[in-house]
Amino acid sequence: MDKHARVVVIGGGIVGVSTLYHLVKKGWSDVVLVERKELTSGSTWHAAGLLPLFNMSYSVGQIHKYSVALYKALQEETGQDVGLRQVGNIRLATNSDRLDEYRQYASVARTIGVRVEFLTPEQVLEIWPLAVKDGLVGAIRHPDDGYIQPADLTQALAKGARAGGGRIYRQTTVLGIDQMRNDEWCVRTDKGDITCEHVVAATGSFARRTGAMIGIDVPVVPVEHQFIVTEPHPEIVSRHEQDLPEMGVLRESDDSWYMREERGGLLLGPYEAGAPACYVDGPTQDSEYELFPEDIDRLMPHIESAIRRVPIFGEAGVKEVYNGAIAYTPDGSPIVGPAWGKRNFWLNEGHSFGITAAGGAGWQLAEWIVEGEPTIDMLGVDPRRFGDYASKAYLQKKNEEAYANVFVIHYPDEERPAARPLRTAPCYDRMQKLGAVFGQKFGWERPNWFAPEGVPQEDHWSFRRSKWFEHVGNECRHVAEHAGLLDMTAFAKARVSGPGAEAFLDRLVANRLPRKVGRISLCHALAPRGGVHSEFTILREAPDSFYLVSAGAFQRLDHDWIFRQLPRDGSVQFENLTSALGVLVVAGPRSRDLLARVCSASLASENFPWLTAQDSTVGLAPARLLRVNFVGELGWEIHHGIEYQNHIFDALMEAGADLELRPFGIRAMDSMRVEKSYRLVGTEMSIEYAALESGLDRFVHPGKGDFVGRDGLLAWQKRGFANRFVTLEVQVTTDADPLGNNPLYLDGALVGRSTSGNYGFRLEKSLALGMVRPDLAEPGVHLEIEVLGERFPATVLQESPYDPQNLKLKG
Ligand SMILES: Cc1cc2nc3c(=O)[nH]c(=O)nc-3n(C[C@H](O)[C@H](O)[C@H](O)COP(=O)(O)OP(=O)(O)OC[C@H]3O[C@@H](n4cnc5c(N)ncnc54)[C@H](O)[C@@H]3O)c2cc1C
Predict the structure, then answer these.
(1) From atom 25 of ligand 1, which residue's Cα is the shortest distance away?
(2) How far apart are CA 716 and CA 255, in angstroms?
(3) What does the radius of gyration of the chain's CA atoms come to, in whole angstroms?
(4) For 496-513, how does the pLDDT look when each residue is reduced to its tens digit (9 = 90+)?
(5) Could you give the dihedral angle defined by the CA atoms of residues 271, 272, 276 and 277, in that order, rounded to the nearest 10 degrees?
(6) Residue closest to 413 by CA, chosen among 758, 755, 753
(7) pTM of whole model > 0.90?
(8) Which label site among 182, 347, 574, 638 has the fewest CB atoms less than 10 Å from its CB?
């Protein structure tokens, strides 16, 4: 066996083999895969082989699209039959919300170039004559969707990888993994050690065990999944004899199951409530081609539903039931990318649709390893989107929920209840008493909106303006006219200090660092090619110490990015302060009067200008005030030791009673940030758009000296930009606003996509942020935008349409 390789991939399921294949295709032939038993002997062999293109996520949608195209070409490349059957896939709808979901999905599909068509119930029957149309209101169909033979596909990828020099060692178990002084890894197997530059873990149900070998808690716990295969049925056999086309895959979304033909019979796969987490501590050492005992009782409601929709299903005898482990993460998407806090260790784990995702995930991971970054924005699958809060106990609850929710309607404002509340700011109970309806981000509970007296304190989700719309509107107007209080404790906070801190941060970000102590700058850390990786608000708190604030959801991602660039000579120290500090935001024209009553600092603009910070007290508590906010009003963020939060909260509420201080939530904040054209990482800013395409000209200074991403950005600029950031007013909408991922058209041609949208209550306009062809980015240009299947006129506005001069912020 090899003693050294450039990359060792652990795991010979579809995902590991695809990663090996793509590394070879990128020109790295010195790559090795080790598998403890036989290829596909984990989850891969028993998969139903479906390749659903449907996915609400922009990242995962692109990954799936690539996979299907690859699998189609693979047979020709390798000569290995992969059993690909592009028979199409119909997803049924029995209610109008489901149709809205399909309409929103169709927008995502159009922006990434996936073919999808809408069907009437009658058209469904033309394709699936053995179904009945009771209760149907419509359906969508993916003509390019279908299924494949997972084991044959794995063998084809293995053949392709071997042809390019990749080596595969079966019956070889990884027992330990150590990082050596020179940063290389030593992968210890029962057949000897292999040293290598990079390790990829693609170990399916063993993911947590593999993670433990390097001291990380991989957020994967599998869940049991079953499917039933029937004996042949005469009607299907007769269709075959008549050479009629295969009916394709049928998905009853509202009853949570899929069905397709299988050898003259039918295959039914339900996603049932109550499916238990499994292999919580990993499979046994002997586990191979392992299945669990069937549990038909759990499937009964779905079997009954399947019989109602396809009556012949009830007439065919059950031939086999498969009950196997399917890897899950709390949000149901895989984890593909770097292991946090480790150099050159990569995860391709947590795949619940691994047959579908393997091609794209292997492709993007190989790009990342070889080129230093992927080409698709991978935030939706990045391993660092979860944090320490994702303990084993949390994962069991959350992953069972994710499994049971595969087919639920994925509302844009959906908040799932399992494993909550978990991380709560001290003011949680106070906010709850004031009517807060909470959402969850990175484990934190955050008020999304506040139910006024008499309104039930419960959420209501929709693709259209929901029941909370009116109340959020009132919150926005209240902030604009009086004063509002927002809990932003979930922010990621950190300190970077030491003699090398300034030089280090200067190289990390594209903006100039604040020169004077007490000054604040908005700074972007670019990815190597010049897109945006992270956004930090940076305060210089001392000559050699900086305080960094970034989005709560990206705490692990942002802090890991810093870790990767940190010099190793001890000249720079990094401290994560997220859980130690709370943040309360006071915003609105009366916020100065309010703070003046409780705070020791002088708040007049000449003493406390915009983009500066001061240490002060609020009530009796020490606190730091930053004159910034995300809603475009006069306001301050109050950063404080977490133990002082309730004291500060009470001091503010008491002092603010006659100033009409009221709490507001994240949904109001988002509406107001769209009115200010403030970009977010993951939507308006990403590695797929150059920082200058995102309109960050004011914050990016290629002339300041070298920084990460500078050369990449300049090279991109030379090649020419394909996009430009815009803010759009959407006209004549009545009950729905853009949600992001809406296609933008000019004379019927696709010219861009919206990245976010919202109703702007202060402007009384429906708004979208987005990316369009640069020549169309001028204010006044008229385009069209698709919102839930309808096209509306959309006009490019001047940036920051609410208070474009920032007079309120600076006042
Ligand atoms: C009943 C069922 C039906 C499914 N149907 C579909 C479907 O229709 N479409 C779809 O897309 N997905 C489907 N899936 C999911 C799919 O099976 C998985 O997502 C996919 O197989 C995951 O592949 P993998 O390579 O990540 O994991 P695995 O196939 O489990 O491979 C991991 C490999 O790593 C090896 N390994 C682990 N630890 C070590 C070690 N220390 N040393 C060496 N080797 C190690 C294991 O032996 C194993 O072979 C289904 C799953 C189930 C249970």
Answers:
(1) 13
(2) 48
(3) 27
(4) 999 999 999 999 999 999
(5) 20
(6) 758
(7) yes
(8) 182
